[in-house]
Structures are given as structure tokens and as C-alpha cells.
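Second opinion, please. Pick holes in both lines of this record:
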Amino acid sequence: MAEVKLGAVESKFADIIWNNEPLKPGELVKLAEAELNWKRTTTFTILKRLCERGIFQNKDRIVTSLISREEFYALQSERFVNDTFEGSLPAFLTAFGTRKKLSEEEVEELKKVIEGMRR
């Protein structure tokens, strides 16, 4: 997979696809025009770029995602922890916790997540 990053505007465009897929390119053009005020050429330029990155595909005149929104954000989170904290999730949580204290509910939820990761 190529570079799996999205800028702010690309992210809004990706959300249009994720929220409406599968869709025909003409439908995508109309949605991008209504929500982003884009012209047809801009829509196809950005779609092509995101297809080259392996996030979406335009196959047989139908636009669909190759990775889900959840998978995309999981990849982004993993990349951030790897790049910023040398892959250490405990180091990330320690840094996060220095400025924001967790509620009891959040602590319990994290415990459940960690237990689920053990299996």
C-alpha cells in the first residue's frame, strides 16, 4: 500500500466516499460539489490520488473503499505511536496521561481493551 495519509480536505472527501459507498463516479462528483464546492476535475484528481494510495478504487465505474474508515484510522494511530514513541504504547499513554486524567469509566474500558488484545 502506498502512503496512507490524508490531509484535512482529503479526509472530508474520504468521508463522503465512506458514508455513501458504493457509488458511481457521477454521484461522487455531485456530492463533492455539494459538500466541498469542488468541480468535476478536482473530484477526479483527488479520487485518482487516493486510489493510487490504495485507500479507494474506481473499478467498473463504481467507487468503493479498499480499507475501511476504522482500518485507516487504526493505521494512522499505529504510525503515530511508532513515529513519536518508538512503537511504545505505554510511553504514549504516559505522555497522554500527563495532561489528561482518565475517568474510572475510561480506565475500565482500557482494561477491557487490553484484556481483549491478550487473547
